[in-house]
Write a structure and sequence with these properties.
Elements (H helix, E strand, L loop, with lengths): L1 E7 L1 H4 L6 H12 L3 E8 L3 H14 L2 E5 L10 H9 L3 E3 L1 H13 L16 E3 L3 E3 L8 E6 L2 E6 L3 H19 L3 E10 L3 H7 L1 H6 L4 E7 L2 E10 L2 H19 L3 E3 L6 H11 L4 E5 L5 H7 L8 E6 L3 H8 L3 H7 L4 H15 L3 E7 L14 E8 L2 E8 L4 H23 L3
Parallel strand pairs: 1-2, 1-3, 3-8, 13-14, 13-15
Antiparallel strand pairs: 4-5, 6-7, 7-8, 9-11, 9-12, 10-11, 15-16, 16-17
Helix pairs in contact: 2-6, 3-4, 10-15
Length: 418
């Protein structure tokens, strides 16, 4: 089945909000085995919306529209869909009753409900009403001439549960095949090298398929199979995943879709019963912040230092004045002393230090912008690596954080028997 997405709302076109609904719906369409070829954003304009929906129905079997179901005059999705399908709008008593109940729970008297709210109780004749458990605008399913349009409310906290609980099962029954995917997350290898290592698999692929997605400092491989049911699809995926694990070994930090690199690192520290101290210069706390985002990080993170100035490097973690004078703040020697001092001050099992030039100013021919040193000390084993990152200040700092997470993970694996 060919599907298409239409996101309705001038606020999306103007960049006032980020269209997260489209990303969510795209992923769900893939899970359902739907072929998604087009996504469109259209403003709150009746002529353009009518033209967009008519075009979509002409080339797709299923069109999912998000937004434009509210009570205001510029919410026109339902009205335009009714016109395109040749249906008249009629009030649905069930929906009107639900709207009354919604306001009653919030202490609003019937006479205080504004007239425009009843607009949401109108539905195209013959449409399937999908109750909204989190708002007043119901979803709608319109079918005709072999085509289907599904109208969903725009707010994500209304649209997502409605789709998961009601629309997904409806579409699953209509789709003879499903798509199942498994993610292989890799760190410490660049995208070009990863692709070269699996070029033969890509050339020979049919079902399942494997695709690469580049992230900052990471590469994700999505293995996807299509089958009549989930069990059959996973059976197809299993040999491919096994082969990828053989090829990439411990560079794979997770095969779980929603596990992040920082979560994998915190998990390793927990498994090893290790405490961690961080000391950052150019990243200014970004590295520690990534770790703190992980639930349970307090079990392993003992302390974090931000030593942006030379004085703070000396005072807080004991970097020698002579080291800073002779080698500079951005040097292997300084990174080493930062990590060593952090461990000594806090008594942690592991420490990570980051020092570098994030730019845009301050670089020299000898020490250009993007030069970063990262040191990781696990017990008494210390490893310092030099990196040369490119991009603007934000990109360099982000790259340094991911590199530090990767280096920390590998150092734990190399030095600790888990």
């Amino acid at each position: 089945m060919i599907a298409e997405l239409i996101s309705v709302g001038t606020e999306i076109l103007l960049g006032n909000i980020v269209n997260t609904n489209a990303a969510f719906l795209s992923e769900k369409c893939a899970q359902l085995g739907l072929s998604l070829y087009y996504q469109t954003v259209v403003g709150d304009n009746p002529e353009r919306l009518r033209e967009t929906l008519t075009l979509a129905l002409g080339r797709s079997d299923l069109v999912i529209l998000g937004g434009g179901l509210g009570p205001t005059q510029d919410d026109l999705t339902k009205e335009i869909a009714a016109q395109v399908f040749g249906r008249v709008l009629k009030e649905d008593p069930h929906t009107r009753e639900r709207i009354e109940g919604f306001f009653k729970l919030r202490g609003t008297k019937p006479e205080e409900i504004t007239e425009n709210n009843w607009k949401q109780a109108l539905a195209p004749e013959g449409a399937v009403i999908v109750d909204n458990e989190n708002g007043t605008a119901p979803g709608l399913i319109l079918e005709g001439n072999g085509k289907t349009a599904i109208l969903l409310p725009g707010p994500p906290n209304e649209m997502i549960p409605m789709f998961n609980q009601k629309i997904f099962p409806y579409l699953r029954e209509k789709q003879p095949e499903i798509i199942v995917s498994e993610m292989i997350k890799i760190c410490g290898i660049g995208e070009s090298r990863v692709e070269s290592m699996i070029s033969d698999l890509i050339a020979a692929q049919n079902n399942p398929t494997v695709a690469t997605y580049a992230k900052t400092g990471e590469v994700h491989l999505r293995v996807t199979a299509k089958a009549g049911n989930e069990a059959e699809a996973r059976k197809l995926i299993k040999p491919m995943v096994r082969e990828l694990k053989v090829r990439f070994g411990n560079k794979i930090y997770s095969t779980e879709e929603h596990v992040t690199l920082e979560e994998a690192v915190v998990s390793l520290l927990k498994e090893g019963g290790m405490s961690l101290t961080t000391v950052e210069s150019c990243t200014g706390g970004l590295f520690t912040g990534r770790l703190v985002n992980v639930q349970g990080a307090s079990e392993v993170l003992k302390q974090g230092f931000i030593t942006y100035s030379n004085k703070s490097k000396r005072k807080l973690v004991g970097v020698k004045k002579l080291t800073l004078k002779e080698f500079g703040a951005v040097s292997e020697k300084t990174a080493r002393e930062m990590a060593k001092g952090a461990r000594m001050v806090t008594g942690s099992d592991v420490s990570v230090s980051i020092t570098g030039l994030a730019g845009p100013d301050g670089g020299t021919e000898e020490k250009p912008v993007g030069l970063v040193y990262i040191a990781v000390a696990v017990k008494d084993n210390m490893k310092v690596q030099e990196y040369r990152f490119s991009g603007n200040r934000a990109k360099i700092r982000e790259s340094a954080v991911v590199a530090a997470l990767t280096q920390l993970r590998m150092s734990i694996l190399e030095n600790i028997q888990l």
